């Protein structure tokens, strides 16, 4: 069985970038930590919420790299004078990536009760009609 690509469809011109984007998303390898929600807050806005209990604001970083929202968490090992009889809460690092479509912008990030909220907005699409003149040859 041969792999069908977007280039195989003659009516889909210029979608090669979409195909690369889908392949990159499939390879991103996000594991299940930390858990997250994505909700649509209006017709043109979204909110990503990550459960980051135990992380301080300084332990987290949020960047946009090549149309990809990357959220990283790294807790400092603060165990100098502590003796654990049981350690069930690991100081674990993570990286979560979300691919952003063109026109989606990252707004503010809010930390609240162990949840990190990242707001996104999408520009309202404009209907564009273009008339092409036909020249005589």
Describe this structure as you would to a colleague:
This protein is mainly β and 137 residues long. It has a single domain, classed as Immunoglobulin-like. It contains one helix and seven strands; from the N terminus they run αβββββββ. The protein has one helix at 16-26; strands at 36-42, 45-51, 60-64, 68-73, 94-99, 104-112, 115-122. It has a four-stranded antiparallel beta sheet, with no helix packed on it. The longest helix is centred in the N-terminal third of the chain and has 11 residues, at 16-26. It is elongated, with a radius of gyration of 21 Å. The protein starts with 15 loop residues before the first helix and ends in a 15-residue tail after the last strand. The mean pLDDT is 85.
CATH hierarchy: architecture:
Sandwich
Task: Give the helix/strand class.
Answer: mainly beta
pLDDT < 50 runs, ≥5 residues = none
SSE pattern: HEEEEEEE
Give short descriptive properties of this protein:
elongated, Immunoglobulin-like, 1 helix, 137 residues, mainly beta, 7 strands
Write the layout of secondary structure elements.
Layout: H1 16-26, E1 36-42, E2 45-51, E3 60-64, E4 68-73, E5 94-99, E6 104-112, E7 115-122
